[in-house]
């Protein structure tokens, strides 16, 4: 792999995407044809899910709603597909259909819970808002993929993204626009709209980490003292990880958001490990976070509650407590009610669980689609992640590869934190399930990740020497 | 960089493996346990749309769910509710359940593991799930006879086949009508429930298995004699001093025989005579002679201090650790802190009737799916073997003699050899006695073992006796079995 200087040199001399490669190995049409086939399949499944929800819950089909909830998303993603044919013809053909399918299943389940809430029509319907947010998110993704013809441009703005992520993180704490919802201060509100800037911050952070680590990898990896067969960094090189750690801890303390802190810190540790190949960074990172979390669980009541709810959710004390394990236990009851094959869409009782449309969408889907359905959803995520990893493995420049693993890992880790929280693998923290959960900021952020991965994959396949 | 990417890939795979595992654990392995949690509103809501299975006696439903016009779709009804209330228990929409309704709830509601295939079939065919029906071992004639025989007295009766453990009758009085708790009007159900709870007769408690148990009195002499014959190696002619007044060891309290005199003529009396005439003083002496361990071990072998499922759970009868020899002496004839359920007392007769082996008392023959295929069959099962067949046969002959010419003569049946033992237990100065009878018939080929307890002195305060009140009731139950 090229050295630091080499990458920068390459990025300046690299042909713009408009320049055709000398020799084509792939026929892009085949990729795009596969993509449109899978996309249509995903759209069909999504519309079918809405129909099943109506049959299950109401016993009759309302074609107007099916058109609104199913077709709206379909038109936009097919538009995205057409755009890809022109601006990124070599992009990965699986990423867009998987994101579409997850987004559509999410809308169907959100709509299903809407049916249990009286007065959920028009703008008061979470499902309708989710469709509108999906449209905004997909348009945002389109803007990114059309405007960003070469991902290496991003590297030039490494420190701009650093500043951006800092601002996004601090925004919810500012008086006036910051809002506290369910105890966590991670929202900003402008008029009736709420937004979670932290969701977008994860992308800015991934770009910043990738750019920073590519330029600093040598001093972070080569120099240092050997101890127990591992090379540990010098004291002064510990600066960056300490800064990120401090930032994560302040998220825990000031925004009361354990999940986001874990997400950012996990992202940084994985990226610094991949960049430097030093296991010592992982050990230092995990040690710092566990230490911080341990102290937080002793000092901060809400962290301590999360742990005791996790360890013993069924005890009467935890179950009845304010902010106790009621939600966690109801989610488990829902999952158990689903069993192996689920109650069927529209036929379960997911609305009993609080936040069944957002944080607990996985429990809702698990109840109505069963273990079989959750396995399918987990498999979709794994497939999505596998495509991302593939980009990282096959990439030709270190910045792109690091960005690829960063964006992929952030999706994987977010799935693990939220689904693991719902299913009691780890303590429950409030995060959204990518693509599925109700929430505009999360949709926008994750669709931008889709755009970036598509752009990266197009670049990878555009290299004539690489047969993937 | 590829080596690091591979490792990150492995970490991601491990994270997802954990998710797959946790989802499987929750939705497959612990799904039944979660569905059974009393806080699970989904289980209750689901139960509304399921047709709950019936509870059958001799093929006829005593509890069943019939279609109703309201949102709950089915109404639970009990035929002869009071007669079977101790067995069926009650089933409310959201105020809990008891008895067989509670113990076999998963089968009746159709959510047990063995009904998985039919659940699958229901989902595919779109039919509403239907619960399994439960066929009881109860014999309706014996149940009715026992119910009538106890009349308005407060107490309980249990009759069991000693060779199989099948329970033929189970009655607890005061009774109640479970229909009033099956109503769909929650307010009325709560009011009725509170009234039943407030009732000083505690009708909701099945006294054969649960509640505040009574001292077993002289029925415990079966255990004391078993210890003497079996563990202490004494013969039935072993002689004990025969005073009219016995001073408890290291205590200034005294003990008398029922009636006040000596136990028959003579300075000494044999264990057998003491048993047949049901004398307290020789039994107390016998207990002290054998020592604390001898009696405690035998009580435990008979099942004291441990429970089991019929499948309604049986609360353990109590034989607490003995503090001193005075307590040992009193415990030897079923007083002090010894407390026994009628189920425990019938087990004592069952051991004697069945060559020393207690078959586990059981209420359910089988569980059948709606298409009548048998989902679960209950086979006779040994609960314990406290004594050998030799000891059992000796005790059997003593119990026959007690009925023929001893302290249990009111259980005599013309032409049948009945074995029996009475008990008249004291509950403290001024409190009415608890009156017991346990026995089996025919003695040479036992078809049924029975235990009867009458609480509150049977209305006779401190003047009644087991032979006077409980033995005639038991006789009617035995006759109901033998005259079939």
From TrEMBL, chain A:
It is a multi-pass membrane protein. One of its GO terms (molecular function) is lipid-linked peptidoglycan transporter activity. The chain crosses the membrane at residues 36-57, 63-87, 94-111, 131-148, 157-175, 195-214, 235-254, 260-276, 281-303, 369-390, 402-423, 435-456. The keyword ATP-binding does not apply. GO terms for biological process: cell division; regulation of cell shape. It is found in: Membrane. Keywords: Cell cycle, Cell division, Cell shape, Membrane, Transmembrane, Transmembrane helix. One of its GO terms (cellular component) is plasma membrane. This is Cell division protein FtsW. Pfam families: FTSW_RODA_SPOVE. InterPro entries: FtsW/RodA.
TrEMBL record, chain B:
SUPFAM superfamilies: beta-lactamase/transpeptidase-like, Penicillin binding protein dimerisation domain. GO terms for cellular component: plasma membrane. GO terms for biological process: cell division; cell wall organization. One of its GO terms (molecular function) is penicillin binding. Gene3D superfamilies: DD-peptidase/beta-lactamase superfamily, Penicillin-binding protein 2a (Domain 2). InterPro entries: Beta-lactam/transpept, Beta-lactam/transpept-like, PBP_dimer_sf, PBPA_dimer, PCN-bd_Tpept. It comes from the Bacteria. Residues 155-479 form the Penicillin-binding protein transpeptidase domain. Residues 52-134 form the Penicillin binding protein A dimerisation domain. Keywords: Cell cycle, Cell division. This is Cell division protein FtsI. It comes from Subtercola boreus.
